[in-house]
Amino acid sequence: MSSPLKGKTVVVTGAASGIGAATAAYVASQGANVISIDIKPIATPTEQSFQADIGDKHSIDRLIQELPANIHGLANIAGLPPTRAAVDVIKVNLIGLKYLTEQLVPKLADGASIVNLASLAGLDWANNRESIMASATLDFDHTEAFCQTHAIAGARSYFFSKEALIVWTMQNRWTWRSRGIRMNAISPGPVDTPILKDFLETLGTRAEEDRRVMDRPGTPADVALLIAFLLADESGWIRGANIPCDGGMFSHVLCQKHGF
Ligand SMILES: NC(=O)c1ccc[n+]([C@@H]2O[C@H](COP(=O)([O-])OP(=O)(O)OC[C@H]3O[C@@H](n4cnc5c(N)ncnc54)[C@H](O)[C@@H]3O)[C@@H](O)[C@H]2O)c1
Known about the structure:
single chain, binds nicotinamide-adenine-dinucleotide
């Protein structure tokens, strides 16, 4: 049986490491033409690769010029961990991701699928309506002032970036419906990649508790296969969804919080 991704052109950001590298490799193994993007050099060669900074508007503008038309999938995986400067985290994980996606829409094929890497850290989105709504029109030039106004500093930047990304994904459930283009998010729990140590450092005792109740952290492959499924036409009825991929942590946190 032929793979559902065979012959599709798929753009993968964050392809130099972790979940992005695993996704690029898996999707390529399924016969897709993979275009890898990262700020770092990409060790594993794919069909095409570009070094670009997703936190910088000009870099994204240059990248868009170079990318081909008729792209069938976009996996927005590049991201910075909570230990990095708050303004940079918001620019890469949220503003740049949204800007890249919106600029790329004209180059997407009808029926294309967009997959955003959110996080279990974005779970509390419903309780942060005001700041998330205020970020809707945020651009690169105003990110610093936005962070000051909304008290987004330190690790909060990471949580906020993922909360707003989940909401943006849901809001765009039907934005490009006339062209059959859909968007979904995946929220992994702790995954064993180079930034896992940053999460453990940030979450402190909460991370110890998570480690105690989890049987194991995720692997990049656990997430890559779900991304590949969401990129394929077979998942076409899934739209605007945020799907946990976390060994049960999302359900665990919610059941504990609501006393079930
Ligand atoms: N590892 C986890 O526990 C975990 C959990 C939930 C969500 N996530 C999310 O998954 C995604 C992938 O993370 P990972 O764990 O594979 O981390 P990783 O550090 O292994 O990979 C992230 C990649 O993004 C790239 N990147 C960072 N800034 C960039 C920029 N400005 N422009 C272009 N590329 C840039 C990095 O160079 C790196 O290759 C991230 O969005 C992260 O927030 C990770």
